Amino acid sequence: MPVLSKISTQKKNNDRYNIFLDHGQGEEYAFSVDEAVLVKFHLRKGLELTEQQIEEILYEEQIRKGYQYAINYLSYRMRSTKEMIDYLKSKELESNNITIIIDRLLKEKYLDDGEFAKAFVRSRINLTMKGPGVIRRELIEKGMSEKEINEALDLYSYEEQLEKAALLLQKKYPKQLKTSRADQDRKMYTLLQSKGFTNDVVQEVLREMKEENEDDCNEEWQAITYQGEKALKKYRSYNGWEQKQKVKQFLYRRGFSFELIDKFIEEHVTD
């Protein structure tokens, strides 16, 4: 039966101890333990240990080490249960031990997926320009249930979504047009959908922006003038009818109406 022949404190961590055993052929390093494990099993020099006792010590040590990993991981921010499981797996802990650690963290309220989801949504609302669709996908990746996701997204009010979507468009697309209204509307619609805003929110924001811009009669004309001048420079080597066709095609591809294109051609392109 091996005898505990030496206990030494680790140089870099005074709360951990190296255990040396003598199996009758000289002293050898066996394993290291936390101070709590040392106390729990009354480990001391000269103590005889059975193989079963050693297994129990190592089992307790892995549980405590894994739990400490978990607490340290939580010290930076809240974690979902899935995030914690994935992290403990990366530490090469056994599945059964991970289950025990997770159960303890849940009982102690260190893990709470419902609260995590709500905190996650609040953070996304305050710190990002993301809509509920993108946030939903992120919560799914974090391992949240449909119920937890829906309850958390209830925090993201319709009014906040409208405000966020409008602010995003104001930053991305200044009021002064540099392309056609139709082309810009398409781009804004695509942008808001890619950010996870619902169709209802997108339509409402675009409608409100359109109403705000109705008083500016020159906006579309300024945009076609800007684009038309670019087209004239691009096709300056062409003359007459051929130049007109090139410019028309250029402006049509950018969403301007035939009526507005013809007006620009009439005023800016010579025969």
TrEMBL record:
Pfam families: RecX_HTH1, RecX_HTH2, RecX_HTH3. The keyword Transcription does not apply. Residues 159-206, 219-265 form the RecX third three-helical domain. One of its GO terms (biological process) is regulation of DNA repair. It is found in: Cytoplasm. Residues 112-153 form the RecX second three-helical domain. It comes from the Bacteria. One of its GO terms (cellular component) is cytoplasm. Keywords: Cytoplasm. Residues 67-105 form the RecX first three-helical domain. Belongs to the RecX family. Modulates RecA activity. NCBIfam families: PRK14135.1 (NF010733). This is Regulatory protein RecX. The gene is recX.
